[in-house]
Write a structure and sequence with these properties.
The protein is about 40% helix and about 35% strand. The protein is built from two helices and 13 strands; from the N terminus they run H-H-E-E-E-E-E-E-E-E-E-E-E-E-E. The chain has a five-stranded antiparallel sheet, with no helix packed on it. Strands 2, 4, 5, 7 and 8 form a five-stranded antiparallel sheet that branches. Strands 10-11-12 form a three-stranded antiparallel sheet, covered by helices on one side. Helix 1 runs antiparallel to helix 2. The radius of gyration is 30 Å and the shape is elongated.
Length: about 220
């Protein structure tokens, strides 16, 4: 219920802003037309009776007015479309509050014997190896994941070290190495976090993923 209320508030705020922008744009277009017509009428009133404006001049100026009006309408339509897309993106992002996501990153938070992360493989791999290190850079655990398909690979660590001992709770770093036909292939590490809030912006919605920071909706690789 809290998520729905927050999402509704975000959309109401965006709608209010869009309405205000539309009124300003329409007002600007109307002012341009009024000034253009007043100038044309003034020219016609003050023209030399012995050398009046010819039809070509009047037609040319009217065509310019039509072009300006058309551009104003096109700009208004594009702005409305952009605002609508931004509102839709924000609504989608708001529905992710409280959900776990995988985003670009190379850290794992270990708590109560559980840590989550992920790997993005550009190509299939014959073998994937993950190395987990502590804050001092010391190797804690090596995970051999075997052959994997291309795509997003969720990763879970039980908190055990290579010696079988339980690692202390905290933040650990990890790297991934993928091998295909004897050569390394691209393996991108992904961090796991919970979406705490969504902030609308000129460039789209930004997700607040706790200690991991802010991410654009396009940076979310998987919703858990």
């Amino acid at each position: 219920m809290a998520i729905a209320t927050q999402a509704s508030s975000v959309i109401d705020a965006l709608n209010a802003a869009n309405s205000s922008l539309a009124k300003k744009t329409a007002g600007a277009a109307g002012d341009t037309q009024d000034r253009f017509l007043k100038l044309l009428v003034t020219q016609m009133k003050n023209q030399d009776p012995l050398n009046p404006m010819d039809n070509a001049q009047v037609t040319s100026q009217m065509a310019q007015l039509s072009t300006v009006s058309g551009i104003d309408r096109l700009n208004s339509t594009l702005q409305a479309l952009s605002d609508s897309m931004a509102a839709s993106q924000t609504m989608t992002a708001a529905s992710m509050i409280g959900r776990g996501v995988l985003v670009p990153g190379a850290t794992m938070s270990l708590a109560n014997g559980q840590a989550l992360g992920g790997i993005e493989l550009a190509l299939p791999a014959d073998s994937v190896t993950v190395k987990i290190t502590d804050a001092a850079g010391a190797l804690v655990r090596t995970l051999h994941l075997g052959a994997q398909q291309a795509g997003i690979l969720p990763l879970a660590w039980d908190g055990l070290t290579d010696t079988g001992a339980s690692a202390a709770d905290g933040v650990y770093r990890f790297t991934a190495e993928a091998v295909l036909a004897g050569s390394r292939s691209t393996a991108t590490t992904l961090a796991f976090g919970m979406v705490n809030a969504v902030t609308p912006g000129a460039k789209g919605a930004t997700l607040d993923v706790g200690r991991l920071g802010g991410f654009a909706l396009s940076e979310v690789k998987q919703v858990m």
